[in-house]
Each structure stands twice: as structure tokens, then as C-alpha cells.
């Protein structure tokens, strides 16, 4: 369990169990294998899955209770951090793994059901299993509207195979669906797939180095995805360049080992949008972490006039867009005096404010690390 995480699109991780079996080329250098080995947990069909501690299972219940009583921060390792909202369920396994005792998964679903103030992100490389592994109290999805099912694919063949399966889940009450194309191992075009318009979110990125030499990631690939997602109106989250990225023939070297620092990216790749499914809905908390060391805070609703300020006095050519849920007024502004435009728009009763400087970053990410409440 991690109350905070380095994974850019989540606030925290919770693992109900650890262990998995490789099922895709993308699994070749799975980061979880190394972590599991350090915990004495094996890998593969023959290795029993390891159920995690009661403390791990209880953590999401505690976070949900904190949201319920309006608590915005908690202490982790003697630091105050925001109470997580976006929770990556099972970052060290696959929630829809056939080898997991079904009663564990059913119990895990019950934890998820009892934590409606969290936004659960369940990734899988086993999309065909999802439907048969929904909980007994699924009830057309009514009890699990805070769950996003994310199919993980690495190339065009997996995309073509899994997107129709993923989209078909919507007819069974899965409210929010996303696609993780990370590590991306080849060009992927979403335009030829009519079902892709139904996706609520796409995450992309290159491969990190763990035990093996990472595979090549061409920046032309995310550029294409960003352009096509824009055409389809699908939010895109660029997670990282990976450890072996190329722009044409030129190798991109970054200080961050996985190329996960947006400040080291070409500006057009600095796109980190969150799932569109919650756009009209206020989360329990709103706070905002901005790039380049900037910080923004958005206070929670109740009709209060809240605002966010980039604390960094030097805007770095970014445009920051904050969107807040129904009934919440939010304002993001840059303190640096370099803003060239300020745009506002109304959306579903919410007031969105955009502080524009030069370039374009779209950021809709409640409750980020490093953010604090005003
Ligand atoms: S499915 Fe996920 S957790 Fe399982 S081996 Fe592949 S990458 Fe690792």
C-alpha cells in the first residue's frame, strides 16, 4: 500500500493481493515482479497469490472516512499529504487474474463499494474476464459508479482486440472505461476503431528500465495519440517518456530515470488530463498540483469562492487549466505576472478559470501530491 505514489495519474495504490502471470509482451519487464520478489512473493501460474495485510485492506476505508468528515490531509512519514482520491487498485497484480481465489476478489469489491468517495482505477490485461468477475451486488453498476475499468494494451493488435471488449462493458453498467497504452511498444492509431470514441480516458507512455533493457519509444507515437484524442474528445494523460525515447533519430535523455518529469518533455507532450467521466461531478476534495514546481490549491465546495494560485513566481510557459465540479467555484491564477491571457468559462454550474501563459497544458487532477488547501 502506498498512501502516495509516483504514478502520475493516481494519488495512491492499494493492493489486495500481490502476484500475477505474464500475459502480454508488455509484461516482459513488469516492475511488480521485482517488488514482489523483495517481499518473497513468486510470479507466474504456479506461484500462489499473496493476500496482503488487514492494514492494507483497511486503508481505503480510512481514507473514505476522512473524506466523509471533511478531512483534507493526513500524515504519512511525518509529512502532511492530501487524502487520496484516485486510487490505483492492485498495482502489483491484476484485479481480474484467473488465479486469484474468487472470494478475495469479492471481498475486495466490498471494500470498493464501501468507499464511494474514492475513485477506483482497476487496470487489467485480462479484459475478457471483467464481466464474469463483477461482484454479486453489481446491480447494473449502480453500486460501483466510482470505478473505472482500464484495459492495458501495448500495441495496435492489442488495441484492436481489447477496445471493443472494453467498450462493450458499458452496456453492463461499467460507467467509466479507460485505456492504458504503457509501455507503448509500437504506433497505435485509434481513428480506425469506431468504438474508441466511447473511451473516457487514455493514458500513454514509454517503457521504464527495470531488469531488462527498455524498448524504444518514439515521440511520434504520443504526438499521434494526443492529436487523435483531441479529435475524438478523449482526455489523454501522458505519463512518461520511458527510459529509451527517441525523437526521430535523436535519443532523448532525461534526468528522471523513467522520463516522468514533464519539465523534461517537449511542450506539446505535456498533456495530463484526467478521465472525463467525473467532469460534472464534484469529488470529495479539490486540489491541484501544477507543473514546474508551481502549486495550486482549490478549496472544496459548499458555495465558497475558492481559488488556486501558482506559488512559483515564475511561470514557465505553461497554460494551466483547472476544472472543478458542480457547485464549486475555482480560480487558478499565476502569480508571476507573465500571464498573457485569462479565460473563464462556465460549465454545468461550475466556474472554470484558466490562467494562460504561453503554451498549453491541460490539467484536471484533483488532490495531487504537493498540493495543499487554502
Ligand atoms: S498483467 Fe500486469 S501485473 Fe501481471 S505480469 Fe503483466 S504487467 Fe505485471
Short overview:
With 374 residues, the chain is an alpha/beta fold.
> Average pLDDT across residues?
80
Q: Under the CATH scheme, which architecture of the largest domain would be assigned? A: Alpha-Beta Barrel
Q: What portion of the residues fall into strands of 2 or more residues?
A: 15-25%
Counting DSSP E segments of at least 2 residues, the number of strands comes to 21
Count of helix runs: 5
* C-alpha Rg (nearest Å): 20 Å
At the first level of CATH, the class of the largest domain is Alpha Beta
CATH fold-level name of the largest domain: TIM Barrel
Structural class: alpha/beta
What form results from the Cα inertia axes? globular
Oligomer: single chain
- What share of residues is helical? 10-25%
Q: What order do the strands of the largest sheet run in, or round the barrel if closed?
A: 1-6-7-8-9-10-12
